[in-house]
Amino acid sequence: MKANAGVVQAEDALNEAKAAAANAQAVLAKAKAADDLAKTREQMFLTVRKLGADAISRLRVDEAIQQRVEAEKRKATPNVAA
After folding, report:
1. Three-state SS letters, 29-79
2. N or C: which end of the chain has fewer CB within 10 A?
């Protein structure tokens, strides 16, 4: 009986070790997922920031072009004095 109880106890310890290993793997996977999410968020922020800067630059260029076109139109149309 003692030998049989020892085998059962060893099997229980083995099952607990397997469960602990599976839990550690799950914790590691969760940590990796959190790290990947943080990296993705950081990349998204950097992309949005870059796109924002690009958009502002484009708006400024478009504004300058519009002002030039309007100035050219004013030059092309003679002032009519009433």
Report:
1. HHHHHHHHHHHHHHHHHHHHHHHHHHHHHHHHHHHHHHHHHHHHHHHHCCC
2. C
CA angle (70 as vertex; 67, 71 as ends), nearest 5: 85
Whose CA is closest to 14, among 22, 3, 1, 26? Answer: 22
Dihedral angle at the C-alpha atoms of 72, 75, 76, 80, nearest 10 degrees? 140
pLDDT for 33-58, tens place per residue? Answer: 999 999 999 999 999 888 888 888 99
Name residue 36's amino acid: D
Q: Could you tell me which of 42, 40, 11, 34 has the C-alpha nearest to residue 26?
A: 34
Predicted TM-score (pTM) above 0.70:
no
Strand, coil or helix: 17: helix
